[in-house]
Design brief:
Blueprint (H helix, E strand, L loop, with lengths): L1 H4 L9 E5 L13 H20 L5 E5 L15 H18 L17 E4 L34 H15 L4 H4 L10 E7 L2 E3 L2 E10 L5 E7 L5 E2 L5 E4 L3 E11 L4 E11 L5 E3 L3 E3 L6 E6 L6 E5 L11 E3 L3 E6 L3 E9 L2 E2 L3 E7 L7 E3 L3 E3 L6 E6 L6 E5 L11 E3 L3 E6 L4 E7 L11 E7 L8 E3 L3 E3 L3 E7 L6 E5 L11 E3 L3 E7 L3 E8 L9 E7 L2
Parallel strand pairs: 1-2, 2-3, 5-11, 13-20, 22-28, 30-36
Antiparallel strand pairs: 4-6, 6-9, 7-8, 7-10, 10-11, 12-14, 14-17, 15-16, 15-18, 18-19, 18-20, 21-23, 23-26, 24-25, 24-27, 27-28, 29-31, 31-34, 32-33, 32-35, 35-36
């Protein structure tokens, strides 16, 4: 109806500005779900715009303004999060998603070209870098919609600034007059480059040969703007920006200028070698601190305090060395002026000894039939290698039979003493203590028990088995519960022979024989099952 009232047909529409939101977005789920729903709606609307206005070429998308309601329509943070829906819709078109093609060389055109329009959101009374705020008084009584005498003029000012300065809008929005002479302008930025949180003074020197200068309008490529001739602007995020200026004279003629500003990041320093555990002999340790940000300086501390641009040992370069004692936390920053990197921090400590190797089975006396005996040597410290000896010499990192790993075996003869050491190549000086143990033949060992009948399958549910040993004066203990019998554990047969009755199905019978003054026998075991 408004187009018709203005005498404009749908076929004449070539540019649109779209600002959309969901009512009660919380009903659609928490972020990002509600923003994704709005994104899908925006993409549908954009395709519908192309259907209604066949010659549309360009559509600008904007976010909501700051809301002060807590329940009605679009409370925060939903109003702020509409920006993500806009961002994702534009990204879909850039990446060829969402059925938003505007380029006839790539297929059917179903949408106009879409891009960011003016960005209206700001955190209430907390000003943006251009000083823009959004007050309760800028809203109607619902605390959502801009008021006629507060928010509407703010939205209109920013919308006008955008259309008068944005490179995609100026060619069709600004119209040169056929009479009179346009103004001229020289624009500059000081400084024009630096690191994040860069404060820039913009200046515009404009003259008009046949009149006076009526207005200066700046936009800064990040959604901010200014109607001041010489604004001061802080750039808080890295990037390459183009500040766009349009100067208008009293006749409505104009001139434009673009001023580039480059903002980089002060990168967090790195430590070489990296923080970690090192052997005591390497302390105090020389650590190289470096940042990839050119023309930056460094400050570091080793007393636990946080370095700043005015606190800590100064390195007047982007790389330097620090001498770090053992068990010290090194902290460092890089900075240019008042622009600081994040704090790098790392603890340099003493490396612990590798765990002393263990032997399985343990050193001791064993039956002669057991020799040569296979002994497993292991350390609890991962990443270690080991060496062992059997000739009485002391193993070192360079001497003894090597085991490449934290576990291995050695074949030990009766009468030999096994010695072993664990070590790590990157922890020189942190070798384990020496493990050692003597292996010998038992002088007097009880003969291993025998079972009669031997294990097997039987047509009964209970079985009686005779257990006996040929060692005079010995006694026997037996188990069927899975535990290992010892001279003090489980059912006793106080003789060299006796019987054990137990349920089978299948059941493992184990028995050990023992006698005073002699070493216990080997544990004998067998399995009994039923055929019933």
């Amino acid at each position: 109806m408004r187009l018709a009232a203005a005498g404009v047909t749908p076929a004449q529409v070539q540019v649109a500005w779209l600002k959309e939101a969901l009512i009660d977005p919380g009903n659609y789920g928490a972020f990002p779900t509600h923003a994704q729903t709005l994104q899908a709606d925006l993409e549908t609307i954009i395709r519908n715009i192309k259907g209604h206005y066949p010659n549309i070429k360009l559509t600008y998308l904007s976010t909501r303004t700051r809301a002060y309601t807590t329940t009605f329509h679009n409370p925060e943070p939903f109003a702020y999060e509409t920006g993500f829906a806009v961002k994702w819709a534009i990204a879909d078109q850039i990446n060829g998603f969402g059925d938003l093609n505007f380029d006839s060389t790539k297929g059917a055109v179903v949408a106009p070209f879409i891009c960011w329009g003016p960005y209206f959101w700001t955190d209430g009374i907390n000003p943006r870098s251009d000083g823009f705020t959004w007050l309760c008084s800028d809203l109607e009584a619902d605390f959502v919609h801009p008021s006629a005498d507060g928010g509407v003029p703010k939205v209109a000012d920013q919308l006008l600034a955008f259309f008068k300065t944005d490179p995609t809008a100026m060619p069709w929005f600004l119209k040169k007059r056929s009479i009179g002479q346009p103004p001229s302008v020289t624009a500059a930025a000081t400084p024009s480059s630096g690191t994040t949180n860069l404060t820039v003074q913009f200046t515009a020197k404009a003259t008009d040969p046949d009149g006076t200068i009526a207005s200066h309008i700046w936009t800064f490529d990040d959604g901010t703007y200014s109607y001041t001739q010489n604004p001061v602007k802080m750039f808080t995020a890295p990037g390459d920006y183009n500040a766009h200026l349009t100067v208008t004279d009293n006749d409505g003629d104009f001139v434009t200028a673009t001023v580039p500003v480059s903002v980089s990041t002060v990168f967090t320093p790195t430590f070489s070698p990296v923080a970690g555990a090192y052997v005591l002999s390497q302390y105090p340790k020389t650590i190289t601190i470096a940042t990839t940000t050119p023309n930056s300086w460094l400050r570091y501390t080793t007393d636990g305090s946080t370095p700043t641009a005015s606190h800590g040992t100064l390195v007047q370069a982007s790389s330097g060395n620090a001498s770090v004692p053992v068990d010290t936390t090194l902290k460092a920053i890089a900075y240019i002026g008042t622009n600081l990197s994040a704090v790098a921090s790392g603890l340099y400590s003493a490396a612990a000894r590798a765990a002393t190797p263990t032997f399985t089975p343990a050193a001791g006396a064993y039956p002669s039939a057991d020799f040569p005996k296979t002994i497993t040597i292991a350390t609890a410290t991962t990443g270690c290698n080991m060496r062992y000896t059997l000739d009485g010499s002391t193993p070192t990192e360079l001497h003894g039979t090597a085991i490449f790993g934290s576990s291995g075996t050695a074949s030990v003869a009766s009468g030999q003493t096994l010695k072993a050491i664990a070590f790590k190549a990157d922890l020189s000086g942190s070798d384990s203590l020496i493990a050692f143990g003597a292996y010998s033949t038992s002088a007097n060992q009880v003969v291993e028990p025998a079972f009669s009948p031997s294990g097997g399958t039987f047509p009964v549910l209970k079985k009686t088995v005779t257990i006996s040993t040929t060692t005079a004066g010995a006694q026997i203990r037996w188990t069927v519960d899975g535990s290992t019998p010892t001279s003090a554990h489980r059912t006793l047969i106080a003789s060299t022979s006796g019987s054990a009755t137990f349920s089978i199905g299948p059941t493992v019978l184990q028995a050990v024989a023992f006698a005073s003054g002699m070493s216990d026998s080997k544990v004998h075991s067998d399995t009994y099952d039923t055929s019933l």
